[in-house]
Structures are given as C-alpha cells and as structure tokens.
Amino acid sequence: MKKKCFQLLLVLASCLLIFSNISFSVLAGSNKSSNSNEWQFTAFGSNTSEEKNPPPLFHEDGSFSMDAKGGKIASSEEGLSFYFMELPADSNFELHTTVKIDRYSPGSQRSFGLMVRDQVAENGDSSKITTNYLAVGGLDDQMRGFYNQDGLTKMNAFGGSNSPVTGESYDLSIKKSGDAYEVAVNGEVQTVSLTNGLSDKLYAGFYVAREAAVTFKDYSLEVADPVADSLQVDAENMKQSYLIGEQLDLEGLVVTAVYSDGSSELLDSADFFVTGFDSTTAGTTSIVIHYAGASAELNLEIRDLALTDLHIKYNPTKTDYYLQDTFEPDGLVIEAEFEEGYLIEEINEEQLQFVIDGEIIEPAQYQFNESGGKMVIVQSKQNPDISVSFHVTVSDAELTGIEIQKAPIKTTYYPDDELDLAGLIVEATYSDGYVERVMRNQLTASEIDTETFGNQQVNLFYKQAETAFTIQVKEKELQGLKVMSYPKTTYHIGDDFNPSGLAAGKLYDNQDVEQIKETDYQLDTSAFNGGKTGVYPIQIIPTKDEIDPISFDVTVREPIQPEWKSIQFGQSTGPEKNYIEQLDNGAIRIVAEPGAGKVTGDHDGITFYYTEVDAEADNFRLSADITVSEYAKSPAHDGQESFGIMARDAIGEDGDSGVFASNIAAIGGFSGGTQEKNGTQLFIRTGVETSDGAGSNGIQKMMLDEDKPKPGNTHPEKAYRLTLSKTNSGFSGQINDGEEAVFFEPDILNVQDSKIYVGFYTARLADIEVHDMEFEATDPPKVDPPAEPVNPNLEVLSRSETSESAYELRLRANVDGFVTIKQEEESVARFHPLQAGETSAITTDLNVNQENDFSISFVPDDTQYLTDYKKIVENFTVSMKTYRSGQDIHVAPNGLKEGGGTKENPLDLDTAIAFVQPGQKIILANGNYVRDQKLEIERFNDGTEEARKYLVAEEGTRPVIDFDKQSEGVVLSGDYWHVTGIDFIRSAGNTKGFTVGGNHNIIEQSRFYENGDTGLQISRTIPGASREEWPSDNLVLNSESFDNRDPSDNNADGFAAKLTAGENNVF
To answer: Which one, of 1051, 1031, 1033, lies nearest residue 1041 by Cα?
Structure first.
C-alpha cells in the first residue's frame, strides 16, 4: 500500500466527549480473524517474531491480554502486536478501552495503547515498516498521544495521569469525526487534525510494542451512522471575546446537526468537540466544531490584556540619600495587575519610567540637590495614568571628607599601563556621623603619566571631597629566562634527546615574556643518559652573561609493555550482556547490550578492556580509532549509557554485579542525563573514598562534540580517534587532532588504590570496535591551569517560612565580597564580609505572624577575576507564623491552608510542617493524604534535643500519605524530628518513599510500601553536602518496608543507609 503524507495540527481542546445522540454500530471484541468486518490480529515490523509477539489471550470476563517482548515505536519505523478492525477511511467512530499494565518498565521504544493507522503487514512479517498513524497510550514513560508524519511527533504528556508502571490502569479513547481526531486519557483530552486524511482504509485497534504486557477490558469500537451532512451554529449567547491565556467557554453555544434526508437534531455540548482554539496571541482565532463527519467554523476575538494597576512588591534597597547622591532604584520590584486582577506579574524596568517633582528622570543621571522627603512616582510607559509611588529621604548633613580604607592592589606601573583601582575601598563621612562606602563607579580619579618614571600621586574625587594615594612608575626589568614550550620530555632506553618544540623567552618583572632565538642560547645535554633510566636536567644557557641559566627535567624509562586484561563488573552487568571479543583484523570489540551496566554520577557498571599503571609514578597517553556499531537507545537515550577510554582508581571483581564506585577520568560517548546532549565528552568523577560511592562529588564534564556517535560519523566512515592523557597537570581529552580539553586535577585517581586502571569500556548500550591502539608513558612538566573568570552568585539558604522569631539569614556567595542587608526599613548588616563558598549567618528578629521583607545587596570584591563586578541585589520574604500557641496542630486530608489547626478546623499537612514549633506535635487524622508533589521537611526546619518536632498519627488510626506515583516521597532534611505511626506509599518510579537527610531523627512504627525505589533510605538530601554534613545519629525503630520496587529492578528496595550516610544511624 502506497504511503500517503498528511499534515497534522495539534491543538489543546476544551471538551471531553464525542457522539451520543446518534445510532452506532457497536463492534465488541471477539477472538476472530476472518474478514475485514471482524477483529484481526497481526504482529509485524522491526524486532517482532512469533515467539516475542504471540496472539492475544482472551479471558472469560471478556477482556484480553497482549504480551510483547519485541517490536518498537521509533521515529522511522514501528514493530508491534496489533489487534484491529478494518474500516473505510471516511468512517466516524469512537474506540475506547480500559487498559491495565501487567508488566512494564521504563525504556525507550516501549509502548501500548490504542492506534489508528493506514497500513498493516502480514502476521510474522518482521521487515521494516512505517506508515501514517495516530495513537494514544504509554510512550517514553508518560501517557500521551503521538502520531507519525514522515517521523514521530509526540503530543504533550497528559499531566493528570500517572506515569506508566506495572499495576496502573487508564481509560483510553480515540474519536474520529471527518479529518479531526480526539485522544483522551482518563478524560483529559487533546485533538489533532489530519488535514489530508489517511488512505482509503483505516485499521483501528489495540497495540503493544517492546517489553510490555497489558490487559484491555471494557473495549468497544462504535461507528457513527448516519453521517451528518452539515452543522448549524448559533453562537449568539456564547462568549466570543477572550483575554490572552483565557480558556474556551462553550456555554451558550447551540449546534444543530443536519442530515442528508433533511432531518436535523439539536446537539448536546457533549456530542461535539472543538479544535483550533488558541488564546496565546491577540487577534482573531478560528475554532472548528466537529460532529459525525461534519464541521463548522466560528471566529472568536482574543484581546490584549489591559494594565489596570501597579503594586510595589519590594522597595529599593536604598531609600536614604545625601545631597548630590545619584538615585538608585536597585532592588525595586513592581508588579503589574491586568484586567482588574485577571493576571498579576512582575514588570521589568524597561516598561517603567520614574517621575520626581513632576519631571521624568533618568535614574543613573538624577542627583538629589534638595534635602527633605521626596515622592518617587513609578509610571507605566505605555499608560502613564497607571502609577505607584514610594518615598525617599534626602539628608541635609554635609560630607566632611573621604578616606582610603584599603589601597588598590596595583601600585607599580610600567609604560603604557592603565590605571587599575581594583581592591580600592573608600569611605565617606558625613556631619551626622554616618560613614558610607563609596562605590568605585562613584569616584573620579586623576590621570597617570606612565612615560615619566618615579612616584606619582593619584587624586580621587567624590562630590566636593578628595583624597589621594601614591603609585610608582618604572621601566620593566629583566628577571631571567622562562620555558615557553617544552620539547619531548619522556624517553625510552636507547632514545636520543630531541629538542624540537623547545621555546624560551626573557621574563620581565611586569610578567611580559619575549621569545628569544635559538642562537641566543645553548643547550647543555651532557647530563642526559639515554642508556639508563632516570631523571636528567637539560640546561638552557644564555649567550649573554647577565642572564642566569635555567633547566628542565626529562625522564628516561624502560619501554612499557602493557598487559591487557578483560573484566565486567558493577550494577546491571552480566557475562551474557557484557563481553569482549578479539577480532580477526586485530581490533577489539567491546559490548554492553541494552540495560547492561551504567555510568552514573556515583557508580558504574561496565565492560572494561584495560591495563594497569602506577598511580604515583606514571603518566600516560592512550589513543585509538573507535568504530561505533551501536550506541544508546533511540530516539530517547536513558542517560546512563557510555563508551570510550576510561582511567579509574579501582575496579570490581570480574562478574560481580554489585554497586561499585571509583574516581574516573574518561573520554567518549556520554550524556549524564535523559535531558542532556549525548555527544562526545571529557568527564571526571571525583571525591569517591570507598567502592560504595561514599564522598562522590558527582560528574564534571566538557562537551567536545555534540553529535551523537554512531556508525556514520565514526571510524572508518569518518575520522574518530579518541585520546585520553594523564599529565602532571591533570587529565586531558582530544578528538582526532582537535583542541585538547583539560581537567586540572592530576591526583584524583590516587585515592582508593596505588594503581590506575586505564583502557576501553562500554556501558548500558554500546557496541564498539577499538582499532590502531597506541599506549605510551609520558612525563610532561606541570602546566598551571589558565585563569577562568568566575560568574558571581549569591544564594539565600535560609527557609522562607518559620515559626520562630529569632531568625538566622544564611547567605553563601561563590566569590569574596561584602553584603548589606535591610529588613523592611531597618539596616541589619552593612558591608558584612562574605568568603567564597562559606555560609554566613546574620541574626535578626522577625515580626511575629507577619511577612518580613529583606533587601540584600552583595558587592563582589573586585580583586578577583570575575565575569561581572556589578552589585547583586536579592529580595527575600520570610513568613513568620505560629499556630495554637504550642498546642497540638491537627491536620486532615481535607485540611486547608487557611485552617486554624484545631480538630474542627484542621490545617493542611504542608502548612503544618512549615510552621510547627519545637516541642509541638502535628496530629494526622485518619485517612488518605493523596499528593502530587513531595512532602519536604526543609533543612533548618529543626527541633532541638530538648524539644523535638513531632509528626504523629492520631491515636488508634493509621493515616496513609499516598504520593499517587506522581512524585518523590518524604524528604526529611531537618534535625530532631519524631515521626510515628504513619504509612508512606506509592512514590513515583525511581524515587524513594522516605529519605532521611537530617540528623537525630526518629522514625517509629511507620510503614513504607509500593514505592518506586527504596522504601526508606538514609543519605544526604542536600547536593554537595560535605561528609561532616551527612545524616547521622538517626533511629528507625519498629518500622516495616515492603513491596517497594524500582522500575529497573536494580536498586535496594526495602531499607537503605548508603552512599552518603553518616555515622551512628541505627535500624
């Protein structure tokens, strides 16, 4: 059958049902396969077979099951088990079922559900096939609609449905009216228009592809009869004008179906469906109403949002000024209200203008020249009548002087240098006693003359005050010689010294280096002995006596004859799936079949062809041409596949499939996550102290080529030679003769073992061949890493909700600097120093049962090498609230955020956890607490040793916190909590039911079951937390964990304390 191309338009719809008031031919399922008017079964396409794709199994209750271990849903082909009915292309119908998953684990190309397609093949035909089709069901571990039009197009996932896992059930339907289709999962609807239709036949039915087993029940195929001839639409009483982003409202729409015999029928709103509604942009939009093969078009208007008000969310950081100060709106946040509250959002400064004393001003140019109070009006540029205002105060105190608190770092200058004020700190003093830091951009400096040698005075001016500091201008002086580039520095016995590549230069005190000619120096190689192992100095002797000689070392070694070994180890590996072959052409084939092994942030499971070198004494360079026969699933990789060259500081036992971790450096195919690009990368893992992964800092990576490695772009079709080198400077990687990428971490593989294990590897899904391997020992001199500018960043680590008025505002910056903090209008800290990477806590008191606004200004220390030296302004609001003066807080499944915490007026669980006081109990009423997001007890939400925080079941009850397969479970990062008598169930796949990341917690008489990974695990919950911060001194008492299962059946599923668990945790 000739494939037809068709165009599709995907639009979100606002209705739920098609067809109800016309006659149908109802075609229920039966185990027949004789003609086109009956249900038929076929298994066809790529990766299918009679063994892997057996016929449906029919049950006494009328349901049937389909089990497929073969097939695929891919971008360019399909292979599936299909139970279907053949229909004319102009049929209008509804296909419906309830499907229950009997076996399904996450993975690409696996799918099940309902499908309509315009071509099928004979049962048993495993040749490649693709055609136009539309389907709804499980794909890419989500429930969604998808279709093929010269390639696979995926519709938005249905957000109201759980991800497909074993045991889940769904209501699925496909409805067709003319060229429009509606797909639905559990009543949530999306629509598709196939503007060119399908072929002259349709095949509608039920399918399963690749590693899935499902049961279909309550299934039917209802074909509409008769077909409507036209639709009459009366929209007089329907809403026809909408705001941007508003939802379609069909109330008042009257639709009448007209048939070819002249009869007509008034339709209910559930009888028809609508496509085409789009309220994202202003203008006219057309919707199309569909029913029983007929359609009608209706135009609607989408209006721009009208601004109706402005509100100040945060005032500027600075509201107190002195005369001649420049206006600074930094920190000001304005919210715009549209259509009387329909939408409220922050508005940027480019859309606003400032008015002072009736004049529009430019903030950076406006100076306050009169003392007293000033009103600053903020107007919308588009509509100046909409405005908001705030007040500033201008003091009449006089500036009495400025003083240098810290001189600039640079005070010595050379010809052609420019003035550099980095590190300069100047303070201004006023007659009222106030001392203020003067920012560098507020100062004016006198010019310097670098052509005149000697001491000079640099004058600094601020307003009417001035001060000065002294600099020295001098001529640069020669310091000596410097090696600019090295020749070969590692030799084998019998080699002669080779000076090629050596370059030397004159080094001056201003750090200039001027290269000299080879005739300007001589090499003294007399100490070199190529016949004996050792380290020998090579002297560079200048021809001019005023310059001292320098030397560098070269190494003579025995030739290394590496002994190559084979091993497979780590999680998910096995000898049937991970293997190495010696090929007749001398190449080495290294294979990890689908799902065999992994490379993660913390541990590996790999096929490894390797040799050993001394971690302390040996450097190396290993390269080879790599043929990639297969790599990663398509179209979606799973983020744990990898191949290439790897060096590691420990290896597991051959055949051991337990978790094994080490520090690594590698180059090759790698993504690091399902949402990351899967190209060729240089990557390292650091911090691993033991083989269970303790201390891991995760993966750092550098992308060298974003293209996914595959047969068409690797050896021999295209040059693809990988090189991994260890030097005294670190680990470097290179593709072909391209630029080397370097991690300047030379000692990362000298932790677990005295050896480095270096070689070629595959993981998860990779089949490669290694050709023309070259391995050599090297000993190049150490090179310092080039300076890289740091992008300044400030983090607020404190909680934004608390029940205690004594509060610590915790800040951390990634660079040195100074922070100024205002709480409301009061100053909390002025130019408080922050050290890069360290947490600083500023103590303050919060207003009780109120919102507390903080304005935080961070000025980076400009002596550092940064991408930006501008002031960073952060606004932060802390809600302080208590309930019931320390008495028990009652929560219930129907509790509200607005509740009072009594039994009669309970709170919701999240609010209670946010605001419980030390020593106070949260009492959970009986019932199911069904959630769609994790339950988080944040870091710093702490009790004390004397006054814990309690989360307990009401006496005589067993409340259940059900995560409904939607999210991670409980994340307990606080300290001194006591949890008693609660069930925690059904976290999403690959997420834990309960993670303890805090200290001194007690989990008692609780149960953890049906979760998507470990039931309860003790491990760090704060990324990057140091070993000292790992969870310790926790007690899990008289609790149960059962029926927990991760989708891949790989991980610990009951209780666990691993990877980043601290000391003295007790079960």
So the answer is: 1051
Do residues 421 and 467 lie in contact, with contact meaning Cβ atoms separated by under 8 Å?
no
Q: Is residue 622 a contact partner of residue 773, using CB atoms and an 8 Å limit?
A: yes
d(C-alpha 730, C-alpha 740), whole Å: 12
pTM over the 0.85 mark? no
Report CA-CA distances (Å) from 450 to 188, 346, 409, 467, 469.
Answer: 74, 50, 17, 21, 16
The rounded distance, in Å, linking the Cα atoms of 337 and 346 is: 9
Tell the residue number behind the tokens 């060259």, with chain if given. Answer: 645
Both tokens of 101, joined, read 């998953």
| Domains of the chain as residue ranges with CATH | 8-224 (2.60.120.200), 230-303 (2.60.40.3630), 327-395 (no CATH), 399-473 (2.60.40.3630), 478-557 (2.60.40.3630), 565-768 (2.60.120.560), 794-880 (2.60.40.10), 884-1057 (2.160.20.10)
Within 8 A by CB and 6+ apart from 565, the residues are: 609, 610, 611
Dump pLDDT digits (tens) for 516-536: 999 999 999 999 999 999 999
d(C-alpha 287, C-alpha 279), whole Å: 11
Is 1029 in a helix, a strand, or coil?
A: helix
Cα dihedral 118→123→127→129 (10° resolution): 10
* Mean pLDDT (whole number) for 31-36: 37
Lookup: tokens for 7? 């165009």
Strands (E), 348-453: 352-356, 359-361, 372-380, 387-395, 399-406, 412-413, 425-430, 435-438, 444-445
Q: Alpha-carbon torsion 499, 501, 506, 508, what sign?
A: negative
Please list, residue by residue across 663-676, b when 16 or more beta carbons sit within 10 angstroms of its beta carbon and e when fewer do: bbbbbbbbbbeeee
Q: What is the tens place of the pLDDT at every residue in 871-922?
A: 999 999 999 999 999 999 999 999 999 999 999 999 999 999 999 999 999 9
* Strand pairing class (794-796; 699-705): unpaired
Q: Are 421 and 438 in contact (CB under 8 A)?
A: no
CB count within 10 Å of CB 305 equals: 17
Beta strands in 740-849 (DSSP E): 741-743, 755-778, 794-796, 801-802, 806-813, 817-823, 826-834, 839-845
Structure tokens at 260: 């070819």
Instruction: Answer yes or no: are the C-beta atoms of 226 and 98 closer than 8 Å.
Output: no
Residue 429, sorted as left (phi over 0), alpha (psi -120 to 50) or beta, turns out to be beta
**Helix (H) or strand (E) segment spanning residue 68:** strand 64-68
CA dist 370 and 395 (Å) reads 9
Q: Which residues make Cβ contacts (< 8 Å) with residue 1062, sequence separation at least 6?
A: 999, 1027, 1029, 1030, 1031, 1032, 1033
Residue-wise pLDDT tens digits, 984-998: 999 988 889 999 999
* pLDDT computed for residue 1051 by the predictor: 65
| DSSP β-ladder status, 180-185 and 949-953 | unpaired
Query: What is the distance between the alpha carbons of residues 421 and 404, in angstroms, rounded to a whole number?
Result: 12
Indicate the SS3 state at residue 210: coil
Distance CA 288, CA 167 (A): 38
3-state helix, strand, coil in the chain (%, to 5): 5, 50, 50
Residue 378 CA, chain-centre distance (Å), reads 37
Identify the bridge partners of residue 733 per DSSP, sorted by sequence position.
724, 741
Amino acid making up residue 798: S
Residue 235 φ then ψ, to 5°: -110, 20
| Letter string b/e over residues 824-838, b meaning 16 or more CB atoms within 10 A of that residue's CB | eeeebbeeeebeeee
Q: Which three-class secondary structure string do you get for 430-496?
A: ECCCCEEEECHHHCEECCCCCCCCEEEEEEEEECCEEEEEEEEECCCCEEEEEEEECCCCEEECCCC
